[in-house]
Amino acid sequence: MWYDTIIGTDIAVAKDLLVRGETVGIPTETVYGLAANALNEEAVLKIFSVKNRPHFDPLIVHVAEVKDIEKYVEEIPGTALKLIAAYMPGPLTLLLKKKSMIPDLVTSGLDQVAIRVPQHSLTSALLQQLDFPLAAPSANPFGYISPTSAYHVYDQLHGRIPYILDGGPTEVGVESTIVGFENGETVIYRLGGLAQEDIERIAGATRLQTNNSSQPHSPGMLKSHYAPRKKLRILGTDSREPENADHAGFIGFDKADVRFKAENQILLSVKGSVKEAAKNLFAAMRLLDASQVEMIYAVQFPENGLGKAINDRLRRAATE
Ligand code: TXA
Ligand code: MG
User: Does residue 265 have its Cβ closer than 6 Å to ligand 1?
Assistant: First the structure.
């Protein structure tokens, strides 16, 4: 099916399409999602086919409000309740035991569903008007960089989806943090827009389990993911000088690097804020990927706050 993809701000149009089982690009505070009715398997199948996503990679379910979570999950552990009270709506996804009304296709057969309450006025208003939750992965082809603007979605998915709800550039810029609970332990499966420190302030110690494995809990955990097409290398992880610096792009934090041409450099936050850097990261990767440079170098960011999520995305982008 070929669509004349429209970018707009009309919630009624988005609603009508979703009710009819179509997919729609939606803004969230983290990245744009490719949404469909989570309770309609045929609609969910369209998400997998538009993204070229393998069926073993489960989808996050988005609900309008905190009180809607219990409609779709069997139980909410105490620590989860505390995290919900502190950080939802927001860039946090929880893995909780699903009710049977959530199709196995959504969870790839797992008995837990990933659920979150996005914080974006347009998408919240849309979810309020629907009588079903929205399954939505990031609105990019599988393995590529997540979109942080409606234009990014259009760039890659135009023709394949009917409508993109334009909510402007996203505030947070990296995907939600994914948290689960195993034998009384709080486990972080994907670093993201809510910092580990913020989670630990409420939940106590956490275990990071974001390594790749052949049976990933979260294929966002796959070693190579979030990747530009060009080769990306992280500076300072070894003593190698950048090769071919004249034809390479540079993603820096707050300082330029004289080894690269000025026009090929993007600084993510001249004021040195990891939060601002996270917001700008994916757009910078896309810009350099689309530019004339032959490869991309990036610095390592401070390992605190959202700096950890930035480094995680850069490492996965650097993995071949
Ligand atoms: O910020 C976000 O989380 C964005 C916006 C659109 O909400 N969504 C997003 O979705 O990043 P996606 O599909 O690109 O990444 C979701 C990750 C995947 O790595 C998936 O494997 C994992 O969440 N996931 C989803 N459901 C799961 C489940 N039931 N158990 C374990 N992991 C799950
Ligand atoms: Mg994704």
Answer: no
- 98: which DSSP letter? B
Element (H, E) at 190: strand 185-190
pLDDT tens-digit profile, the chain (320 residues): 899 999 999 999 999 999 999 999 999 999 999 999 999 999 999 999 999 999 999 999 999 999 999 999 999 999 999 999 999 999 999 999 999 999 999 999 999 999 999 999 999 999 999 999 999 999 999 989 999 999 999 999 999 999 999 999 999 999 999 999 999 999 999 999 999 999 999 999 999 998 754 455 555 566 667 788 999 999 987 777 898 999 999 999 999 999 999 999 999 999 999 999 999 999 999 999 999 999 999 999 999 999 999 999 999 999 87
Phi then psi dihedrals of residue 69, to 5 deg: -55, -45
Mutate-to-test residue for ligand 1 from 218, 221, 306, highest number of ligand atoms within 8 A of CB = 218
Ligand 1 centroid, distance to 60 Cα (angstroms): 5
Give the pTM: 0.96
Quick check: 67 and 75 in contact, CB under 8 A? no
Separation of 170 CA from ligand 2 center, angstroms? 15
